Amino acid sequence: MKKRCRQTLDIWKKAVLKPLSLNLEPSGSGITLLCVTRNEGWRLPCFLEHYRKLGLSRFVFIDNDSADSSRDFLAAQEDVDLYLCREQYQSLAQRGWRHQLMARYGYQRWYLNLDADEFLVYDGMEEHPLEDLTRLLEKEGNLRPRGLLVDMYGDGGLARHRQLDSCEAVREYCRYFDSDGYTELCSKHRVRCMGGIRGRMYKQMGYTEYTPELTKHVLFFLSGEDMMIGAHQMFPAWRNFLSERILGLLHYKFSRRDLLKIDDALARQVYWNNSEDYQRYARWFRENPEQGFMYEGSREYQSPDSLVAAGVIAPIDWSGATRHMLDWRDRTQWKNPLQRARIKYMFKDYLKFGWRKKDFSKEL
């Protein structure tokens, strides 16, 4: 874990991010949304609309050398700061880019760290903007709430998904999600959750030892001690075990443009483990060109209540009477095997790293 922190810090220091359009006061108030994007201009209006409805007005984008209209569109937005990075995208590299900008926009504040195909939802979002949620979480000490990628799909086959060519069409058609089949367990440094349509795809192909991980910490209160060390975990790791699963990330991967992205990912091999996930997607689509994504556990998404009813995410008690996080002092939690494992790993990581405070911001 120390090695990965050091690697991220090295890229953080060296990354060249060129400002193209700056509209925000770096020290201004409010949650700052940070996103790395490449050739996703077709999705960005829909993406911004979703998060503006949640009350956000601070957006920071890193454009990774797009060849479409992304930069022109983002530069015209009054609530967006836009940077250009021409370096080759890699999972580790983009974490360094994000950290460089978070250092610019400041610590001791909330960030929402997303990809352009992720749409955050939570119980009660229709009445409570995102700042209501962060105030509630901050009050209870839950500074790194746990989220779940919820893969979304339509009721037709691959050919129908290949016709989806706008963000609005994708979100209107891909209304279904897996309501069951999720497996959650504790491992070194994090709570892991596997399942969803991509998990079913992998299982069908015989990949039983690995399925895509769905846990993500995209919303967090950043201190100088916090660092992203992977797509699904942060340092210090003991904080990864505290929160219940209260955030849903509607994840749209099956449109015409997303399917074309598979070819680009295979050619450039810049994603995790030489784009291994994309190699498996390509094989599945090649071997199952007519197969749809629906199964007996598919449910239609109508609102966050749909995810809560299926047990995919937990409800939020807006009265503040119930905490949405682990309480190792509660003896009843020790009776649950998963909760007991979370407590065990939390203490193990805390004793190894947590008591030794390390402020990465002072190393710049």
Describe the structure.
By secondary structure, this protein is an alpha/beta fold. It is 37% helix and 21% strand. The protein is built from 13 helices and 16 strands. It has a 6-stranded mixed sheet with strand order 1-4-3-2-5-12. A 4-stranded mixed sheet has the order 6-15-7-11. The longest helix has 18 residues, at 337-354. The protein is globular. The two termini are 19 Å apart. The model has no long low-confidence stretch (mean pLDDT 90).
Shape label:
globular
| Estimated helix fraction | 25-40%
Strands in their spatial order, largest beta sheet: 1-4-3-2-5-12
Given helix and strand content, the structural type is: alpha/beta
How many strands, which pairing sense, and closed or not: the largest β-sheet? 6 strands, mixed
Spans where pLDDT lies below 50 across 5 or more residues: none
Query: What order do the helices and strands follow?
Result: HEEHEHEHEEHEHHEEEHEEEEEHHEHHH
Q: What is the radius of gyration?
A: 20 Å
The proportion of residues in beta strands is 15-25%
Distance between the termini: 19 Å
Quote the average pLDDT: 90
> What's the count of strands?
16
Number of helices: 13
